[in-house]
Amino acid sequence: MTRQPASASSPSTPQKATDKPVPGPGRPKDLGKRAAILDAAKRLFVSHGYLNVSMDQIAAEAGVSKLTVYSHFGDKETLFSEAIRSKCSEMLPADLFEMPLEGSLREQLLAIARAFFALVGSDEALALHRVMLTQTDEPLRQLFWQSGPQAVHDAFADFLRARIASGELVIDDADRAAHQFFVLAKGHLHNSMLCGLLAEPPLPAEVDAHLQATVDFFLRAYAPR
Question: pTM for this structure?
Answer without folding.
Answer: 0.71
